[in-house]
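Morning!

This is the sequence you dropped in the shared folder:
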Amino acid sequence: MGAQDYFDVTMDLLAAEGYPALKQQRLCQALGVTTGSFYTHFGSWQDFTGRFLEHWTEQRTLQIAELADQAEDPIAALTLLRERALSTPHRSEAAIRAWSLADPTVAATQARVDRLREEAIFRAMSKMFDDAEEARHFARMAMFTLVGFEQIEANDARPEHLDAVLQRILVAVVEASGWTTEAVRSR
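The structure's back. Tokens below.
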């Protein structure tokens, strides 16, 4: 058993029981290990939460942004970002956002993740617009949609609802930027 197992179960606990369940004893119980095993991997609870948050940021934001940055064109980048948004563990992410209200370290990480995600969307959209401010508004719209979806539908997340709205945003971006909507519908 490695650190990744702890991180995976943490996401499951967050989704199933919310951040209040995120305690060392509960985590070890869910993994079927002792607290001694926990300390084999992590120096302290603070070390664990810091590493978990780093892992979450890397896996659910930085790697995805890097893939989008490498996409062949902005439509491909935005399509990839939309697909990744649909596969996001929304209940876990909603629990992390709730946790951020009680823990300043988590709040700082959540703010960083939000900023990084918005920047990834903006980088793709800015390739489509002459006006950077217009691209910024659409990037914020997409972020507001994702965060709102996770807050409103966290307990009964239906990705098809999110997909319908994100598709409409993408069509609006294409139309406002002068690109063709056929390029969006063909992806």
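Headline: The chain has a mean pLDDT of 93.

More detail when I'm at my desk.
O.
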